[in-house]
Specification:
This protein is an alpha+beta fold and about 120 residues long. About 40% of the residues lie in helices and about 20% in strands. Strand 1 and strand 2 form a beta hairpin. It is flat. The termini are far apart. About 0% of the residues are buried.
Length: about 120
């Protein structure tokens, strides 16, 4: 079990194929994960540019997926910001002082920021 490979079905929206290979890291320091993928996006190069604009480019998605896999394998869970105030609120507090109000914030966000 060192490789997983796939290919899209004939009627897939985006024709693609690839593999994920798991190799021992040098010096016995874990596992290297290598991903190879080829795809033919709709609209060719224009489709690639549009996907990139919307953050849907496979290379970016694979990178994010590998980061989540690493976190899961190393820590047993994937870190999230669920239940935490957004970074936008924290930055606003740092810039504006200790009392924050405004139509863009929910009552819960204002309570969290203002204490």
């Amino acid at each position: 079990g060192e490789m997983i490979a796939w290919r899209s079905l004939e009627d897939a929206d985006i024709e693609n194929h690839g593999s994920v290979t798991f190799l021992p890291a040098p010096g016995g320091r874990g596992t290297e994960v290598r991903v190879e993928m080829e795809y033919n996006p709709p609209a060719g190069k224009l489709g690639v540019a549009i996907a990139r604009l919307f953050g849907e480019e496979p290379q970016s998605q694979i990178h994010e997926d590998l980061l989540r896999l690493r976190a899961l394998m190393e820590a047993g869970e994937v870190p999230t910001t669920d239940g935490q105030p957004s970074d936008k609120v924290r930055r606003a507090k740092g810039l504006l002082g200790t009392r924050l109000t405004g139509p863009g914030l929910t009552e819960e966000q204002m309570a969290e920021v203002n204490g």
